[in-house]
Amino acid sequence: MRRFRLSTLMIVLSFIFVLAGCVENPSTNQGSEEGETKAEVEKGEKVVNIGYSGPLSGPAAFYGERTLNGIKLAVEEINNNGGFDVNDQTYKINLVSLDDKYLPNETAANAKRLLQEHNTPIIFTPHSGGVQAMQVFNEKENFLIGAYTSEPSITETGNSLTVRIPPRYDGYMEPFTKYQMERFGKKLAALPTSTQYGKDWTEMLLPHWKENGGEVVHESSIDFAKDTDFFTMITNALKEKPDVLFIGGPSEPTAKVAKQARELGFEGGFIIMDQAKLDEMKKVTGSYDVLEGAIGVMPLVNADYPGTPQFVENYREKYGEDPGSEAGLNYIATYIFVEAMKAAGTVDDPKAIRSHIQDGLDNLPKEKQVYVIPEIGEDGGFKADLSVAAVEDGKIVPIKVKE
């Protein structure tokens, strides 16, 4: 009988420990890790929660972190400067970030969690799949999407609570094609990321290339979530003797593709999809020499806007590296949303905030203009000039884009 009671007691204790373990780490069950940039709230101040869902682990983690860093820096500056006033009430910001591993279904789940647990009127995400997943229910659930994606279809759906932060990527087709054909030739091999964003880019670039007299000699894609060695895929593409390689995705793995292509003897040019950034790629390749002949988005540190120098200095001090456009654009978007709240007279009415985004742009202090964004289009996308650059003789040079 004593042995039976002892055994029973041990089973009960074991069951309690298991339950305790489940309770202590709820984020593991949720499939997301939560991080907060908490505001120190003083008497008379209130807090507004802002959400973020993006890749903070896996092959796109650096991309997600740098996007998040831009928002973090803006939030910290706003809070450290005493917050912001709406209708004579002072607010500070709590930024709540969740890892979605670059998976749209995780983005949707994170958005539900951010709404239920934190009541976030705005949720940022840096990939088109995540935006599309949230657009299924964001109008019904009443939250605003800060969409860091240049995918045109994001704002062609008519979703009234989506703000597209970067310019549409279709404007890159003409300058990218013209530059590469004139400098290297008309035979193109495509090896972009296999994500929906990569597929959409490919479906727009390849017909444009052909319409301008070019030939597509190879078409494939790379799943950066699974593939880490690109030797076979690049070898197959180079067998067709292309003049230009179209590559892209997160900066780090894209840089590895370019580097391996050079090691395999490729001497042509690169069309770099706008998700990858030349300066971020340089950190992997070691120099711009490997990227000779590449055309892509102008690195932020080489841009000339009113607020850029101070932002670059502050970012370097905070994170110990140069900021990319993903950090800069999300930084400025955070300030724009805050100015829109002030103009709307509310921090918790997404429809009112959305209707005052143009006021947010108009009221943005000059020293915060890391980019110059004159207006938001009727479709909900920020309208700004494209900033394009190429690598020539190991240096970044601006490429003029036809108005």
Number of helices: 15
CATH superfamily of the largest domain: Response regulator
- Determine the N-to-C terminus distance: 89 Å
Q: Quick check: average pLDDT?
A: 90
Q: Per CATH, which architecture of the largest domain?
A: 3-Layer(aba) Sandwich
Shape: globular
Sequence stretches where pLDDT stays below 50 over 5 or more residues: 1-31
CATH topology of the largest domain: Rossmann fold
Topology, number of strands = 16
- Considering DSSP H and I runs of 4 or more, what fraction of the residues is helical? 40-55%
- Work out the oligomeric state of the chains in this entry: single chain
> What number of structural domains do the residues give?
2
Taking the sheet with the most strands, its summary is: 7 strands, mixed
- CATH hierarchy, class of the largest domain: Alpha Beta
**Structural class based on helices, strands and sheet pairing:** alpha/beta
The whole-angstrom Rg is 23 Å
How much strand?
15-25%
Offer a quick outline of the entry:
With 403 residues, the chain is α/β, with parallel strands linked by helices. The chain is 44% helix and 19% strand.
